[in-house]
Design brief:
This protein is an alpha+beta fold. The protein folds into three domains: 191 residues, no CATH class; 201 residues, Aminopeptidase (3-Layer(aba) Sandwich), CATH 3.40.630; 158 residues, Immunoglobulin-like. The longest helix has 44 residues. It starts with a helix and ends in a 10-residue tail after the last strand.
Length: 579
């Protein structure tokens, strides 16, 4: 009896002790969560003094939370049934947050006091590379600390914990995932920028200015080109050209993979306008690089693409720019001007390309002068990269390795254990600039139809030719194509290539609910189905590409592809099983 009473008293004392300290730890952790968000905002806005004060308070809160949950009594109570797993998980969360503060937040705030975003403004066309050298090792260590914390968080067992504890672990995992993604991007940038800006010797980069008015899988047809020279942080415009300056090569300038030739034809390697037909940007870049070498005798160190929408984002940072023609280019009018108005204003393709080149040079000039707002510029670049509107390839293997799995690399979609990704790419087959009128939606849904629970994925693509019938005859011939390639005036012809995840098998393709012919093949291990669609003005159609998964899957399903101006993600609806 005495033993039972003693045990009961001990349990009550343990519950009281742990309960009080648990509430105190909960308060500190909630305060820390708010503080982290405030520190991030302060650093971005340049309020470093405020960030330092917040960081000091954060350190006190995380240390307190860790202390409340790691004493002898708390750890002893972790052996108790039911309550024990909750205590262990709570202690793990508090410890991880304290370590993140010590190993990532504090060092980053400390270095932020000596390095500011404004330090990366070009001054007289040059960027001071010294701050990058200061930042890089600190960011690299912080990124590693966050990744380690994320792994530790995912090792926390929550099978027997209360819902509130399980949710707290989930929130921490989500927060760390966001932080890991963001800081890893910064780390990559800091590793890439010094060599790309000529820290170890001069560099030359070929820039392709693409227009999605005539779609290519890489973004759009190349109209204007330029070479940017970098040396010791100094950036200058070294050369400019238009697509009309390049000849038709009688055979591909580089050996093409057999799969690429089968899918897109040898013209990928014969015309500068067609190097972007393949969604593999690494190949696109190497072909463009070789064409520039053959034409001008210069072997560049890398290739970069940008489209008018990306330029409009950059104009948010630079503000309005006056072009050599006297026209005022703004973030509001750039897309319409460069995707539509220019074709009505200039009859000759060479004049159109020269206008594109002058606009790109003007934007570059403003960037090189250091006029843009640094925060706005970072946001613009990030948005353009996420949307695949700016792509980068490096001829230096160690730098390309850093780029490889980023959105800037323009690679085929990568599936993981938590996400299944399908690629949807569009190439113009009208031979004109009609894709300004092409509206489309894409999306993917999943349904289980089989006893073995292997999922069926349905990739839906809806296309609409939005050109009003009464405007057909008013289109310039360069926009409509003049029926030169057998496509009637006002119609839009498009090649759609859908890449299944590597572990999926093609089932079928349907158009407007009925089976339709398609071309199945492979591209670097990806199963690919291609369909050509021609739409008259006002006509719309829906395609469904169905794929069979290898095993049951419960993660995210997503589509990726080249940017199209009038595009949206399809709303999930109508899952159908292929019989």
């Amino acid at each position: 009896m005495i033993s039972i009473v003693t045990l009961s008293v001990a349990l009550l004392a343990c519950a009281a002790w742990v309960g009080v300290r648990g509430l105190l730890a909960k308060t500190e952790l909630e305060n820390a969560e708010t503080r982290l968000s405030a520190i991030r905002s302060a650093v971005i806005t340049g309020d470093i003094a405020g960030a330092q004060k917040l960081s000091t308070r954060l350190s006190a809160e995380t240390a307190a939370a860790s202390g409340y949950t790691s004493d002898v009594v708390w750890r002893s109570c972790e052996w108790l049934p039911w309550v024990g797993p909750n205590l262990t998980a709570t202690r793990s969360v508090a410890t991880i947050i304290d370590e993140v503060d010590r190993d990532a937040v504090v060092p980053l705030v400390r270095v932020a006091s000596s390095v500011h975003l404004r330090d990366f403004h070009p001054v007289n066309g040059a960027i001071d590379l010294a701050p990058l050298a200061v930042l890089q090792p600190v960011v690299a260590k912080a990124a590693h600390a966050l990744l380690l914390a994320q792994q530790q968080t995912r090792n926390i067992t929550t099978d027997s914990t209360a819902d509130s504890v399980r949710r707290a672990v989930g929130r921490l995992d989500t927060t760390l995932q966001t932080a890991v993604t963001a800081l890893s991007s910064v780390d990559r940038t800091l590793r890439l920028l010094p060599p790309m800006l000529g820290a170890k010797g001069p560099r030359n980069y070929l820039v392709l200015f693409q227009t999605p008015a005539e779609l290519r899988a890489s973004g759009g047809i190349t109209g204007a080109l330029a070479v940017i020279h970098t040396e010791n942080g100094r950036i200058s415009l070294a050369a400019q050209a238009t697509s009309g300056d390049f000849p038709h090569h009688p055979q591909p300038v580089l050996a093409l993979p057999a799969e690429t030739s089968a899918l897109y034809g040898d013209i990928v390697g014969e015309f500068i306008q067609d190097v972007g037909l393949t969604p593999n940007f690494s190949l696109t870049a190497q072909l463009a690089r070789e064409m520039w070498r053959l034409r001008y005798g210069i072997t560049v160190d890398g290739v970069i693409t940008a489209d008018p929408v990306a330029l409009s984002y950059l104009l948010n940072a630079t503000g309005p720019i006056v072009l050599p023609s006297g026209e005022r280019l703004t973030s509001a009018n750039a897309v319409k001007l460069l995707l539509s108005d220019v074709y009505h204003r200039f009859v000759k393709p060479s004049d159109q390309d020269k206008f594109f080149a002058s606009a790109a040079a003007a934007v570059f000039g403003e960037l090189a002068k250091g006029k843009p707002d640094s925060v706005a510029l970072v946001k613009a670049m990030g948005r353009a990269g996420t949307e695949r509107r700016i792509l980068i390839w490096s001829a230096h293997p160690e730098e390309q390795a850093v780029l490889t799995d980023t959105t800037f690399a323009g690679g085929l979609p990568v599936s993981t254990a938590k996400a299944k990704r399908f690629g949807v790419y569009f190439n113009d087959a009208t031979g004109a600039k009609m894709d300004r009128y092409l509206s489309l939606t894409t999306g993917v849904t999943k349904v289980e139809c089989r006893k073995d629970h292997r999922p069926q994925y349905n990739v839906r693509v809806t296309l609409t030719n939005t050109l009003p019938v009464n405007e057909v005859n008013s289109l310039p011939e360069y926009v409509s194509g003049g029926a030169l390639f057998g496509v009637p005036l006002g119609s839009v012809k498009t090649l759609i290539s859908v890449y299944g995840a590597p572990d999926t098998t093609s089932l079928s393709v349907s158009r407007d609910g009925a089976p339709t012919g398609y071309r199945p093949t492979l591209d670097t291990g990806y199963p690919v189905n291609s369909v050509g669609i021609q739409l008259a003005p006002g006509q719309s159609t829906e395609l469904v590409f169905s794929w069979l998964g290898k095993a049951p899957f419960s993660g995210q399903i997503l589509t990726e592809g080249n940017p199209v101006e009038n595009s949206n993600l399809l709303v999930t609806r109508g899952n159908m099983c292929v019989v």
